Every structure is written in structure tokens, then in C-alpha cells.
Amino acid sequence: MYKKLNMKLSFLSNKKCPICLTSFFSYIKLPTFYSQKLIENNFKHDINQAETLNIKQYTCPTCGANDRDRLYKLYWQNIISNLNQTQKYNFIDFAPSQSLSKYLKNIPILNYRSADLFMNNVDDKVDIQDLPYQNDSIDFFNCSHILEHVFDDRKAISELYRILKPNGIGILMVPIILSVTETIEDPLEKNEAIRWAKFGQYDHVRLYNKQDYINRIKSIGFKLTFLDKNSLQITDYNKNGISEKSVLYIVSK
Ligand SMILES: [Zn+2]
Q1: pTM of this structure
Q2: Exposure winner among 162, 172, 226, 230, fewest CB in 10 A?
């Protein structure tokens, strides 16, 4: 009987967050507030067309990590395990998420720094369009869902390029909705309802077309690699709560 019960319980907790390593029955779905706002403001795209977004399995109930954070963790874990473990590597985590930040901070071979312009409790208060780091000084960076907020995204990308060491690597992600046929942007737009309508969020100033985003990254000089279902080597998408449509944008110099 106990065996049966155990089997039943293990079925109930068949999800496991790759960051906090706890098991549970289900991830928390993306708050309905978000889709309600999009409908209210007549946003014309369908977020089901988003490339890397797990609407049904969005947040870890234990650590609060979203599906992107979980994907990044699996990627960095693999990269870091293949490094020379006797060296130190400079890592900048822009607009850090709490759970991923905690994981990265505890990796002994990383000189980890969190960085943001507005967040409290970061190591460096920085404007990504004008970074205080030296040329060719950073081994790795994580920069996720920032470029769609900043006034001059090309300046931000060129700053990331400038600080990265040759052969350094970064994760450089923005929200991509596959049905968006051209990038629209207006960094001067301040009206939140208009921003919801045009860019899909109250604090976004642009909405990228995928190819245009790729062109902007490459025009600065970055090499760009996509990691998708064929190359990510994730053994269990469902357990990790990661969408099989996810694509990681990896830049290198
Ligand atoms: Zn978690």
C-alpha cells in the first residue's frame, strides 16, 4: 500500500525546478492580468505566438523563477561545468532575477556582479547604454528582456560588445512574438495604455520583429548562435517547465 501511495505522490510532484531543485505538482501559469491588459488595450498580437514563453508553466511556486530563468540556468550550468575550475571568470548579470542570481552568485569560479539602473541591492548601478566596465573585460553576461525597455538599444548592444572579452559569451534575449512582421518603436512614448497597445507592456518602448532583432545584434559585430530544441539538450521540457518552442540567443565576440 505504501508503495502505491509513493507512486501516486511521485506522480503528483513530477515537476522539478532546475534552479531551486524542489519538486511539485505544477508550475504557476502566467498571471491572467497580463493577457487581460493586452486585450483591454487592443494589442494586436497573440502571446501564444511568443517564442520563449511558457504561459501554462510560467513561475516556480518555490523560488519564483520563470521559464526563461530556468532555461538560462541549464545553459550556464553546462557552460560553467566545462570551464577550467581553477580560474576565475567575470560574469555580469543585468536586471538579475532573484533565483538565478542566487544560483550564479554561489558558483566559486565566477566573479559575479549583478547590475541594473533601477533595482536596489545590485552590485553595480549602471546604465546599459553607458557601462562603467573596461573594454574586453567580461567573460560572460546575462542580458534578458532589457533592450525593449531602453531608449537606444543599439547603443546598449554596442556597450555589451565593447565590454565582452574576445571568445566571451552572453545570453541576449528580448520578447519575440513570431507574428510581428516589423519592429515598431517609440522611446519617447510615455502613455502606458499606448505602450500596452503597441509594444505589449506598459514599460516597453519597442516590439521586435525577429529578423530585425537579429540584424541589430549582428550589425554591432556580435556572432549569434541560436539554441533550440535540436541543440539545447534538455532531457525533460515538461519537468523543467520549459516550452519546446524556446530559443536561446547566444552572442559571442
Ligand atoms: Zn524554483
Answers
A1: 0.94
A2: 230
